[in-house]
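Format notes (please read before filing issues)

Several people have asked whether sequences and structure tokens are stored in separate files. They are not. Every record keeps both together, in the order shown below: the sequence lines, then the token lines. Line labels are part of the format and must not be stripped during preprocessing.
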Amino acid sequence: MTVLNELEPFALQLILVLFALLLPALDYLFKDKRLLAAATLIPLVGVAAAVVAWMFFDVWTPPAGSVPLVEVDLFSGLFTLVFVAVGIIVVLSSADFVRGDRNQGEYYSLILLAITGMTLVAEATDLFVIFVGLEIAGISSFALSGFRKREKRSAEAATKYFIVGGFSSALTLFAISLFYGVAGTTSISALGPGMEAMFSSMEGADSVAMLATVLIIAGFGFKVAAVPFHMWAPDVYEGAPTPISGLLAAASKKMGFAAFFKVFLIGLVVSKTDWEAAVALLAIVTMTVGNLIAVSQTSVKRMLAYSSVAQAGYLLIALPVGTQYAVAGAMFHVLTHAFMKSGAFMVVAGMGAAAVGEKLEDFKGLGKRSPFLAIAMTLFLLSLAGIPPLAGFASKFVLFSSAVYGSVDPGPGWLIWLAVAGVLNSALSLYYYARVIKYMYMDAGSGERFKVPRWTLAAILIALVMTVFLGLFFDAAVDVCMRAAESFPLPPGL
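Then the structure lines:
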């Protein structure tokens, strides 16, 4: 019974792993491969239902267990909900997109393993657990990116992702080893006190800690595709199967931010004055470069990739601000971005499944050829730009306003420029989003009307409903995000 009690915090991960191991065997039993997608949905829907019942309706309380390496709280619960929700959307779209491909059992199994790693990062209270979670998700994502290994783009995407991912993992591991040397622990909560004690007793410890901080910024920066660590993202997003591109943009990057929040706002908050200006500059540069390069893209997938780079810049605002309100705003934007960005990629996947194409030119006349896809894409893009009353506006408002409040109390006055940069970049992003809308409704297309497979339509509809719902009825979501932020152990005054 003791062993079972200790494993209770890993219940969600164990369920996902169990189904992941089962799916390759089911691949040999099911002639209709869409049944594999249905089987993959069982644990995802179950986990999503359990988390919603806990977070929004207080129906049950997750097991606490006695393992000091993970903690199931509102913070991890919200990120888990994001990961499984995106997983549901990706699996639904994949049922049509990968129809006829070989090894679909392994494909769905890897999706579950990737989500398992993501949830582990969200629950981690130890640096090594974060590293293990990042690696589980990363290795699974490498394989998924190259799933269509006979396609040159897919093989190239997997290769680039593997090389860059391996480099970022090395940087992260080196940073963890330095932190252990300075603090004498890998526990995130004990990292700050350990370093303070070492600073007073060992000469040069502060320099080692600063080097470790720079390295972990770089390591996590690769995971979230922050500038200048973003160069892999456009090629990988373009070359990977489109549903997997949605998984990487809407879920995998959020895993990186879960790690960022935990390490910097818990472990390294004692040295916040040393890194806050650098991270603030990183945020402004990331959102600006991402939006500027997105303007010139002719591939919708590459445009969405650079848009994701810009969105990473917005989310980085929460770190230098460092208040609970900022954490809540970032978590709310994580939630909204998961649906609007995955929805946009699923529209592209639907066009790919219908053999229409993924280039900007292929969107000409989409309003007449597929009215539902055109309407859905329009709402996703407007939400990404932050146009009310959609979800993106609500989450950006909370996130940007946190920088304004943070510049007054307790942070430095220059934090307000993060909000200014965010607003200006959102206005810039509207230009290239509006260009896609123009192509869909104002330019004549050469193709005929086409139908999108039902499973893909279901995936798009889920993302669309949530994008509109979170914009119109955001109070409940904001309340949950605030409660999650309050459970975040920020020091008094922050």
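For reference, the curators noted about this record: The chain has a mean pLDDT of 84. The CA atoms of residues 324 and 485 lie 5 Å apart.
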